Amino acid sequence: MQKRRRFRQTQSLEERLTDEAKSLREEAKTLPPCARKEALLRKARHDETAAHLTEWLTSPGLKPPG
Fold first, then answer.
1. Cα separation of 50 and 66, whole Å?
2. Sign (positive/negative) of CA torsion 21, 23, 29, 34?
3. Measured CA distances, 46 to 2, 8, 32, 39, 61 (Å)
4. What are the pLDDT digits (tens) for 8-63?
5. Residue in 39, 48, 42 with CA at minimum distance from that of residue 20
6. pTM of the predicted model, to two decimals?
7. d(CA 45, CA 33)
């Protein structure tokens, strides 16, 4: 049986998602209006939403989003 390769993350999930969203938005800025640009912006919004949800779920107070 093969051994699983373990990888220790140096950044939190929220940081990685936020960084990816920033880079996707930067890439989208360089494109003219097109389907690829819309897809990049949609992925950036999804990443930002996921970061907020993860932050909310791991918060000690666990208050409803608002």
1. 15
2. negative
3. 34, 24, 21, 10, 24
4. 889 989 999 999 999 999 999 999 999 999 999 999 999 999 999 998 888 887 66
5. 48
6. 0.76
7. 17
